[in-house]
Amino acid sequence: MRKIFILTFLPILLLNGCVDKKESQDSSNTSNFSTETYGLISYEYEDLGEKLIFWDDVPNIGLAHYYVYFFSRTCGHCQRIKDLVIPNLLKRKIYFACEASREHVTCSVTPKGNFGEIDFCIPGYPTIIEIKNWAIVKSVSGENEVLSFLNTK
């Protein structure tokens, strides 16, 4: 009877121990990979604080040259890049952020020109516009394009 027990249950106990050990190693590797390898901190758009502005404030910042990042909380692209974009915006003095609004719509192209001469709209989310002397001089839209733009400016 002892031989049957040893031959039947011992291999199961040994295999079970190996599986549990491997699973615990895998789960610890996963948590180390995400935090230690990249060191990313999770951000929320509320973390932007005073850099969050309303649509009506975009042309009235009071600076001759600045940038505005447009986002939507329901945009998957905006959510994917927020942990990279938010700290980038926080460290720059002339960058602001504006959330999507039901009153304002997107358009196919951001028109360039003075705010008094154009109807203000953006092509989608995420988008960064550059404003010089109260005119939109550049617009960059899309997840990769916004990240690339922030890396060069």
Description:
With 153 residues, the protein is of the alpha/beta class. It folds into two domains: 1-39; 45-152, Glutaredoxin (3-Layer(aba) Sandwich). The chain contains three helices and six strands. The protein has a six-stranded mixed β-sheet. The protein is globular and about 40 Å long. The relative contact order is 0.14. Mean pLDDT is 74; it is low at 4-39.
Number of helices: 3
The biggest beta sheet reads: 6 strands, mixed
**Through-space gap between termini:** 77 Å
Task: Give the name of the CATH architecture of the largest domain.
Answer: 3-Layer(aba) Sandwich
Unreliable stretches (pLDDT < 50, length at least 5) are 4-39
How many strand units? 6
Arrangement of strands in the largest sheet = 1-3-2-5-6-4
Q: Roughly how much helix do the residues carry, as a percent range? A: 25-40%
Q: What is the H-and-E element order?
A: HEEHEEEEH
What does the radius of gyration come to? Answer: 25 Å
